[in-house]
């Protein structure tokens, strides 16, 4: 299992000191790796701006996060085009810059014809201009209080300016583990080499924007930390090719039980995502009135018609069908599109009692009685959003997350803009994603994706891994889909083809 540690500011400083020990050549090597990561992230996320930007603002401090963006400047300027004007606001005197920062500024910025340089005191002169981007690198994790008056004023003006995308390098100015009322608000934070604890604090969530990690190879393991995050490099178990002598049963059989007359679409999204989740077979138990039309839409799945309650949910009678087939299941997903009818709740409890394979509970399948039945199984995942979680926990803090997961011996995937996955011992944060996912149906895709990964016998994933991987893949697919369809005009079903 390869997740990456989240470190406090002091831990990050100590870690870097142990690696570099003040050796500027080693520091420059790391700066070059980070700058490559910045360029890759930027050019992938903002393809529509290629040769199509008018003004870009750089807010430059004296530290290494400024060196990172200065080193990336040539490639960024080439990408944005020769008609772009680049404004560099120097927030400290150049003579106070660290050596690498100063050299990179002199080599890559000074004297360029499309560059305009000003100091922090002159920020008023550009406050009425429109900028497509600003790269903020004033202090990073070396931010200290008190904030000088000129930087307080700078932050106030910058936050009021017309900037389409504010990208902070490493840590946004003013964001720290301590309280600060002087912060530059980022739309994106490119965390460089080490993910810092301050980015995930509740008090900073409106300041950091979308968090993206630039891995430069600092960590081979999680350093035994309990506070972790999942990056693309964590998904190593999904890389190997399928073995040539495999058949469909080699990859597991996912059972999905869901849907109702009221919420028909949820189980269809389950089905489509489950089929793309790596499972070899997908069987879907759904209200009998939906079966024929669903089979016509998605013939790759096996549909099991189930008797219905008077309100159109799946009847308790379904348990006999489930029992007769359950020996084939390698994972079960239940709850998407259910209602809270008493008979549906009774069915959920009976299914839990009658299966020993890994199980994922979503939506209305998550309630205290169902969790009691999962105690000590250690192979169950629940996928609540915040509202559903608050039905079973006192609040949505890390402490409550750890407490609940430990109490029931389950893994919790708590859905939000930064997803948290907890097995009672560790919390893994997942930062991939986009606000485009904040729409009906994305949770149904996620639960089926997680259940399908869990069902795949060839992958042999732990519940913590399956939930973390599923959350990361959904977020990444959502980002790619929104680049095609736009964040406002995307539908949840659009995301499935990007998984």
Q: What would your notes on this structure say?
A:
- This protein has 499 residues and is α/β, with parallel strands linked by helices.
- It folds into 2 domains: 4-222, YjeF N-terminal domain (Rossmann fold), CATH 3.40.50.10260; 237-496, Ribokinase (UDP-N-acetylmuramoyl-L-alanine:D-glutamate ligase, 3-Layer(aba) Sandwich), CATH 3.40.1190.20.
- The chain has helices at residues 9-20, 24-45, 64-80, 99-108, 149-160, 205-208, 264-275, 291-297, 318-325, 342-353, 368-374, 386-389, 398-408, 442-455, 463-485, 492-496, and strands at residues 4-7, 55-60, 85-90, 115-119, 130-137, 162-169, 188-192, 195-196, 210-214, 227-230, 253-257, 281-287, 302-306, 331-334, 359-361, 380-382, 411-414, 419-422, 427-430.
- The strands form 2 sheets. Strands 8-1-10-19-18-17-16-15-14-11-12-13 form a 12-stranded mixed beta sheet, sandwiched between helices. A 7-stranded parallel beta sheet has the order 4-3-2-5-6-7-9, with helices on both faces.
- Strand 14, helix 10 (342-353) and strand 15 (359-361) form a beta-alpha-beta unit.
- The longest helix has 23 residues, at 463-485.
- The model has no long low-confidence stretch (mean pLDDT 95).
């Amino acid at each position: 299992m390869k997740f990456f540690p989240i470190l406090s500011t002091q831990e990050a400083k100590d870690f870097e000191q142990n690696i570099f020990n003040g050796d500027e050549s080693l520091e420059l090597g790391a700066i070059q790796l980070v700058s490559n990561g910045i360029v890759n992230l930027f050019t992938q996320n903002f393809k529509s701006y290629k040769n199509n930007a008018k003004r870009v603002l750089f807010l430059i401090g004296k530290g290494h996060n400024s060196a990172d963006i200065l080193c990336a400047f040539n490639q960024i300027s080439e990408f944005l085009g020769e008609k772009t004007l680049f404004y560099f606001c120097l927030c400290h005197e150049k003579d106070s810059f660290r050596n690498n920062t100063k050299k990179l500024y002199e080599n890559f910025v000074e004297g360029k014809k499309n560059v305009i340089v000003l100091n922090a005191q002159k920020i008023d002169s550009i406050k009425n201009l429109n900028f497509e981007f600003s790269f903020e690198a004033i202090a990073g994790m070396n931010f200290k209080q008190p904030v000088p008056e000129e930087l307080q004023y700078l932050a106030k003006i910058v936050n009021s300016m017309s900037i389409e995308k504010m990208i902070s390098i490493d840590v946004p100015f003013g964001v720290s583990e301590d309280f600060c009322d002087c912060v530059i608000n980022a739309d994106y934070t490119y965390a460089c080499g080490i993910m810092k604890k301050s980015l995930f604090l509740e008090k900073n969530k409106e300041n950091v924007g979308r968090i993206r990690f630039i891995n430069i190879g600092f960590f081979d393991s999680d350093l035994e930390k309990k506070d972790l995050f999942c990056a693309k490099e964590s998904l190593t178990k999904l890389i190997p090719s399928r073995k040539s002598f495999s058949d469909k049963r080699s990859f597991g059989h996912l059972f999905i039980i869901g849907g109702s007359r009221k919420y028909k679409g949820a189980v269809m999204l389950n089905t489509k995502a489950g089929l793309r989740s790596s499972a070899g077979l997908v069987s879907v138990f759904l209200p009998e009135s939906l079966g024929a039309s669903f089979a016509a839409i998605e013939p790759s799945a096996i549909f099991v018609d189930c008797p219905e309650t008077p309100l159109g949910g799946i009847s308790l009678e379904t348990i006999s069908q489930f029992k007769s087939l359950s020996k084939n299941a390698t994972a079960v997903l239940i709850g998407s599109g259910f209602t809270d009818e008493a008979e549906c709740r009774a069915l959920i409890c009976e299914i839990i009692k009658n299966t020993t394979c890994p199980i994922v509970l979503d939506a209305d399948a998550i309630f205290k009685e169902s969790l009691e039945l999962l105690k000590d199984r250690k192979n169950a995942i629940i996928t609540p959003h915040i509202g559903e979680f608050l039905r079973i926990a006192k609040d949505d803090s890390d402490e409550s997350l750890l407490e609940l997961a430990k109490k029931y011996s389950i893994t919790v995937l708590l859905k939000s803009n930064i997803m948290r996955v907890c097995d009672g011992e560790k919390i893994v944060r997942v930062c991939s994603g986009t606000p485009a996912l904040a729409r009906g149906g994305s949770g149904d895709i996620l639960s089926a994706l997680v259940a399908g990964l869990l069902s795949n016998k060839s992958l042999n994933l732990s519940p913590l891994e399956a939930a973390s991987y599923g959350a990361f893949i959904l977020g990444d697919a959502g980002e790619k889909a929104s680049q095609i369809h736009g964040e406002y005009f995307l539908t949840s079903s659009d995301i499935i083809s990007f998984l």
